[in-house]
Amino acid sequence: MTILVTGGLGYIGSHTVVELLNSNFEVVIVDDLSNSERFILNNIEEITGKKPIFYPFDLKRKELLNQVFDAHQIDGCINFAAYKAVGESQEKPLDYYENNLFTLINILQEFKVRNISNFIFSSSCTVYGQADVQPIDESTPMKTPESSYGKTKQMGEEILKDFAEAHHRKVSLLRYFNPIGAHPSAKLGELPLGIPNNLVPYVTQTASGIREKLNIWGNDYPTEDGTAVRDYIYVVDLAKAHVQALQKLISSGEEKVIDIYNLGTGKGSSVLEVVQAYERANGVEVPYQICDRRAGDITIAYANANKAERELGWKADTPLEEALRTTWQWQKYLESREV
Ligand SMILES: NC(=O)c1ccc[n+]([C@@H]2O[C@H](COP(=O)([O-])OP(=O)(O)OC[C@H]3O[C@@H](n4cnc5c(N)ncnc54)[C@H](O)[C@@H]3O)[C@@H](O)[C@H]2O)c1
Ligand SMILES: O=c1ccn([C@@H]2O[C@H](COP(=O)(O)OP(=O)(O)O[C@H]3O[C@H](CO)[C@H](O)[C@H](O)[C@H]3O)[C@@H](O)[C@H]2O)c(=O)[nH]1
């Protein structure tokens, strides 16, 4: 079967392409390289011994997308392509709505006219906002997200539910918690662009001396050590969930399926716990200072991922320290490429 993977050279997409190829799917990647680099394609080939087909263009260009569907018998899509910087989405909301929603609709139009099913969407636990109860399961009520980025994820989910209902198609909405780590080969990982927003990339750059100190945004939260709590999920575990969600859609005898899964470990870790685990895992020091809270941050979010375990037979079981070790190895790899 041939799967279109949009954003397949990005962080989560590239790891998922590896898992798809290892599971004998044919892969067609469309990625405009707006947040990724071409060498990732070679590294995917080095890891798997297989070369995915790659088209470098912007998915907003309908005519090019149309040609891809003409050229390949596409059996499903995993749609990673999106802008994802929360802060930037507040400054450029129209760019976020345009990129994250028009691209989605363009692909779905092709699915509609060509009668294709099996669509997997990258959603986020940001759709829950600050949930009233932890852990968060799929029936936890959604709240209005703080950012335009978060709103594109909620809207994307609604578009897909309507699409599945109206056209009798199979879709899976995967709500990721906080993905971290890199491929064990150290050939794939998150590419740092400017000053990292996310915790683990910032910790990594601090440990390697690129940043002087980590700013811990607040230690006065109502948590055990006062720092905010998240559910950090290893990216390879997350990638595997996509293959399992896809296999479930493909093998379902139903005409219409709307699956929704939380993808997390079920365990919350505080910012300080992540810093300490990083130091232990990699034998490095991470200097930090406590700062004021970051605007828009929630106190705590961790998943109840039992539904994914029950229905997909999937569980994120890589320990935090192991995931953090791969991050450090990826950083060393990036540094070795620079010299
Ligand atoms: N990383 C996270 O913390 C996180 C958490 C929850 C959800 N998500 C979602 O998961 C998906 C993948 O995230 P990621 O961390 O791998 O991001 P990423 O930026 O590394 O990957 C996205 C890829 O899509 C490409 N892309 C963006 N717009 C495009 C367009 N118009 N046409 C073609 N290609 C385009 C980029 O070049 C990039 O390679 C995104 O939809 C993101 O919103 C990410
Ligand atoms: O330099 C930093 C960076 C982060 N943090 C703290 O670390 C925690 C995690 O922050 P991240 O920015 O890594 O992750 P968020 O949970 O804030 O947001 C991320 O995960 C969300 C889903 O939970 C969305 O998907 C969003 O796109 C993605 O950026 C937060 O308490 C944050 O305040 C710091 O203390 N210092």
From TrEMBL:
Which pathway does it take part in? Answer: Carbohydrate metabolism; galactose metabolism
List the protein's name: UDP-glucose 4-epimerase
Question: Can you tell me which family this protein belongs to?
Answer: Belongs to the NAD(P)-dependent epimerase/dehydratase family.
Q: Name one GO biological process term.
A: galactose metabolic process
The record's annotation in SUPFAM superfamilies points to:
NAD(P)-binding Rossmann-fold domains
First-tier enzyme category under EC:
isomerase
The protein's GO terms of the molecular function aspect are: UDP-glucose 4-epimerase activity
Q: Per the entry, which co-factors are needed?
A: NAD(+)
